[in-house]
Design brief:
The protein has 473 residues and is an alpha/beta fold. It folds into 4 domains: 22-83 and 128-157 and 194-333, Alpha-Beta Barrel (TIM Barrel), CATH 3.20.20; 88-125 and 165-188, no CATH class; 339-415, Immunoglobulin-like (Sandwich); 428-470, no CATH class. Helix content is 28%, strand content 19%. It contains 13 helices and 22 strands. The strands form 7 sheets. The chain has a 5-stranded parallel beta sheet with strand order 1-2-3-7-12, with helices on one face. A hairpin with a 2-residue loop joins strand 17 (351-356) and strand 18 (359-364). The longest helix is centred in the middle third of the chain and has 19 residues, at 196-214. It is globular.
Length: 473
């Protein structure tokens, strides 16, 4: 039975993922990686090809030829709403009332239709199979030539921005006979599952759309824009969400003023780690809404290097957010010297650290208290501006710091997650060792075997290793 099980794993490792090749996320294990959010200048059209090697992914790509000429591996996406109507009647409530009144979601007063944001886009009942078919038809029609579908405003929280600067909650629909059908409780909350039917409906919609995109003659990846914080304490729904996407763009990132409060920081770090362990991409956005200060950028970079494994990148926006004239900072070139991780991130007293072959990333997640942290002994460090550090460094509240080693590698060899036999690559021996560690034939090495970062070795780690080995998302 054990031999048969091992044989099945070998067969899985030998099988291709799809008849048609799916574009893979660029491996981010080494150095710094960024994305371009919305494809408009800068860079100028004439400069895109020269800048393309620095980017892994473009959200809503428009200059495809230029991007691909400079970076054949870049992942380019097309844009669509993950919540509202995507067709020609997006803003025409009257058309929907006349043609598909049973598709329109209403608020709990049973009178107010759910409209999105200041422009009043119509929100349709995403639990209705006919709506799913309608939306998928549009998605498929715009996906040709792209690698991914960028699903904006995918929303897990039933707190929906409405015209006039207010927020509403979806509750139900009127069926074809005009009878009220309650769909959701109408409760919202950004940090927990307040409306289970709404959350489950959203996850199911994304799962079904992903499956249908993967079944296209040329499969397309699905990457919604959403904050996973809603399911942070619900491990079952976390797993369901991860299985329903190929990647996530988190527009909320870690830039809000209360990012260090409560459990927000550790739970989002854990989710980003688990998502990557499943072969999915984690891309997040850091918005300053002001000129990007050195401290803001340092914190953003430090957090990024805590969570980065094989599929993570970030975008930093300043005063003009996505239109900012600065899309590349000198610090990005400097932090590339960090190289590959020595192991997973660790934490103590709310200070998080991760050593890299070329330096260290430190984050103080205490909202009000400074922390003094010792640096790895036997090495000298400097910050990204070239200032020398002592044997320890004091971190201000809610801050981060990336330091570079000035006297050689911090670790003898960069530890590759999943490289259990230490030969610097992933192979079938690593899978065999992972299974032996799981069944306790071999002592576990969590530094490289714990791919989902949950502090223990489970079957999910073995499955994640196989996916990494064969390149299956």
């Amino acid at each position: 039975m054990a031999v048969l099980g091992w044989g099945v794993l070998l067969m899985l490792a030998a099988c291709p993922a799809d008849a048609a090749e799916v574009r893979r996320w660029i491996d981010t294990w080494d150095g710094f990686h960024t994305v371009k959010v919305f494809d408009w200048p800068p860079p100028a059209d004439s400069e895109v090809a020269s800048w393309a090697p620095k980017f892994d992914f473009v959200w809503n790509a428009r200059r495809d030829t230029e991007w691909r000429s400079g970076n054949p591996n870049i992942v380019l996406s097309t844009y669509a709403s993950g919540l509202t109507d995507n067709g020609p009647f997006e803003l025409d409530l009257g058309w929907w009332q006349a043609n598909h009144p049973d598709w329109i979601l209403y608020e709990c007063d049973r009178v107010t239709p759910v409209l999105w944001a200041s422009y009043g886009a119509v929100v349709l009942d995403f639990t209705n199979p006919a709506v799913e078919e309608y939306q998928f038809t549009h998605y498929a029609s715009i996906a040709g030539g792209k690698d991914a579908l960028a699903m904006d405003n995918a929303m897990l929280d039933n707190t929906l921005e409405a015209p006039g600067g207010r927020y509403g909650h979806a509750c139900g629909v009127y069926d074809t006979s005009g009878q009220w059908v309650q769909k959701f409780s109408g409760r919202g909350g950004p940090a927990s599952v307040e409306d289970p039917a709404f959350v489950d409906g959203r996850i199911t919609f994304m799962r079904n759309i992903r499956a249908r995109l993967q079944a296209l003659p040329q499969p397309v990846l699905s990457i919604p824009n959403l904050d996973p914080k809603v399911v942070r304490f619900d491990l079952a729904r976390q797993a369901a969400l991860i299985n329903s996407v190929d990647g996530i763009l988190d527009e909320n990132g870690f830039w809000s003023t209360d990012w260090a409060a409560g459990n927000d920081f550790p739970t989002k770090l854990a989710f980003a780690t688990a998502l990557q362990a499943a072969g999915k991409a984690w891309y997040h956005i850091e918005l300053a809404f002001a000129p990007v200060s050195p401290s803001f950028l340092q914190r953003a970079l430090a957090i990024y290097f805590l969570l980065k494994n094989h599929a993570a990148a970030m975008f930093v926006g300043g005063t003009s957010s996505y239109d900012d004239p600065t899309f590349w900072y000198p610090e990005y070139d400097a932090v590339a010297a960090l190289g590959t991780p020595c192991g997973a991130y660790t934490s103590a007293n709310n200070v998080y650290r991760r050593e890299y072959r070329g330096g260290i990333a430190l984050v103080n997640a205490e909202a009000t208290q400074a922390r003094t942290e010792p640096l790895p002994s036997g090495h000298r460090f400097q910050d990204l501006s070239g200032n020398a550090m002592g044997a320890s460094v004091t971190l201000s509240p809610a801050s981060g710091l990336v330091l570079l080693s000035t006297d050689g590698p911090v670790c003898a060899a960069a530890a590759l997650l999943g490289d259990l036999d230490g030969n610097g690559k992933l192979d079938l021996t690593d899978v065999r060792w992972s299974i032996e560690m799981l069944v306790k034939i071999r002592p576990p090495n969590l530094a490289t075997a714990d791919l989902d970062g949950n502090g223990s070795l489970t079957l999910a780690d073995v499955q994640a290793l196989i996916r990494l080995l064969v390149g299956v998302p």
